Amino acid sequence: MAIIAQQCPHIKVTVVDLNEKRIADWNDDNLDNLPVFEPGLDAIVREARGRNLFFSTEVDKAIDEAEMIFISVNTPTKTYGKGKGMAADLKYIELCARQIARVSKQNKIVVEKSTLPVRTASAIKSILDHTGNDVKFEILSNPEFLAEGTAVSDLLNPDRVLIGGDITPEGNKASQDLVDIYANWVPKERILTTNVWSSELSKLTANAFLAQRVSSINAMSEICEKTGADVDEVSRAIGMDSRIGSKFLKASVGFGGSCFQKDILNLVYIAKSYGLNEVADYWEQVILMNEYQKERFTNQMITALYNTVSDKKITFFGWAFKKDTNDTRESAAIKVADNLLNEQAKISVYDPKVKANQIYADLDYLKTRKETENKSLLTVETEPYTACENSHCIAILTEWDEFKTYNWQKIYDNMLKPAVIFDGRSLLERKKMEDIGFIYYSIGSGITKE
Ligand SMILES: NC(=O)c1ccc[n+]([C@@H]2O[C@H](COP(=O)([O-])OP(=O)(O)OC[C@H]3O[C@@H](n4cnc5c(N)ncnc54)[C@H](O)[C@@H]3O)[C@@H](O)[C@H]2O)c1
């Protein structure tokens, strides 16, 4: 919405949320306090906020005034009842639809921006059409393909914008209204229009394909470690094949983020609900492989530290699920930390953007142990060199660029020996680390050869 406001000064954009603290943070004079960290976002908010971009908790008022409403609420995996652990929880979507239905007095276009199971638009339409106050709604699907960490550049220069609408004169008119907004900055040939169901399913498909590439290269990473192949060399070799392409072929400790797992589970659930069990099993394997990769990483760490990490200090560099974001949802670091704490390790975390209260909240949410135990076993540092002092091992969980620039000799000097690095992102240079004296493990090329 910030990008729409910045690119279209003639359009008034109001972002509403039930969460008062979030809205207060979006309105904070100090742009460092914006709730989402994304490179370049602060400058865009500075430019548009108060001009044609507003943040408010007055939901009814904003609905009443709007000609077009983007529903962008969370659609997490269900944690209860039918479809628990798999289906998308659509209660927030339904609440929004009911509120829009209750408040609206004029015709509106309602845009599904959240990622939704295919055919959700018909449920929204059914709720909106039963208001009894003669208001007409057109429902569009406009899934979001941005990647966190590069959200601003992705939105300014998208590979494509996808708009799904009803194939009726009114549906086509609504689609065109949304096309006209994006056309303010996106070349027309990159704006695709489809029917609603294709648009809804395309988003789930895109995330499933992206995550599948990560799990595929991660599966190869273990074969590489066993055979002496190097997964980065394999990635380069296959990535030069134009049919395969070079992106998303980096082996790692596993994908995270709020979307991949949730969206694939949702796809699996949809497939199962149509009785397509083979299709469901196929996609579920992408998630199972991802879980396995996190387990494997932890187990290798324990083995390298002489089969016990009890009372040993292990330093985590990175907690966010990827670089250039403060988002930690489903981050691999959470699972690896939980596994190591089960083995009575002491963990010290440094992440350039994630705050201590978020790290503890992520661990507490798992309910593996008492909150007080998490607090006593894990410490959060605001300075990387302190985080490594007297540590046995450093685990790199996020690919923050700054980690490459550290004085690794100084880090080595202040660690216990043998000093071990477990590089879950293949971020550092093996030779440089080994020359300093580290034992160095990298996903897909294994540990220092004796
Ligand atoms: N985060 C991403 O990178 C990304 C990318 C593409 C698609 N999506 C999709 O976008 C949707 C939102 O994701 P997110 O990461 O922004 O989630 P989020 O949980 O960070 O934000 C959702 C917000 O909606 C608010 N909300 C919930 N119910 C509301 C209601 N009835 N009225 C007003 N506000 C309400 C919540 O308070 C919360 O602040 C999801 O469907 C997700 O799959 C996210």
Low-confidence stretches: none
Helix content: 40-55%
Question: For the CA atoms, what is the radius of gyration?
Answer: 24 Å
Secondary-structure-derived class: alpha/beta
How many distinct helices? 18
Number of strands: 14
- Separation, N- and C-terminal Cα atoms: 54 Å
Shape: globular
Largest sheet: spatial strand order: 10-9-8-11-12-13-14
Bound ions, cofactors and other small molecules, one mention each: nicotinamide-adenine-dinucleotide
Strand content: 5-15%
Could you describe the largest sheet, including whether it forms a barrel?
A: 7 strands, mixed
Q: Average pLDDT value?
A: 96
Word description of this protein:
By secondary structure, the chain is an alpha/beta fold. It has helices spanning 2-7, 20-26, 41-48, 59-65, 91-103, 120-129, 151-156, 169-182, 196-227, 231-239, 260-273, 277-304, 332-342, 356-366, 371-377, 384-388, 408-413, 430-436; strands spanning 13-16, 53-56, 68-71, 108-112, 137-141, 161-165, 191-195, 313-317, 346-350, 378-381, 393-396, 420-423, 439-442, 446-447. It has 18 helices and 14 strands. A 7-stranded mixed beta sheet has the order 10-9-8-11-12-13-14, with helices on both faces. Strands 3-4-5 form a 3-stranded parallel beta sheet, with helices on both faces. It has a two-stranded parallel sheet with strand order 1-2. Helix 6 links the parallel strand 4 (108-112) and strand 5 (137-141). The longest helix is centred in the middle third of the chain and has 32 residues, at 196-227. The model has no long low-confidence stretch (mean pLDDT 96). Nicotinamide-adenine-dinucleotide binds at residues 16-19, 22, 59, 72-75, 92, 95-96, 114-115, 144, 146, 148, 258-259.
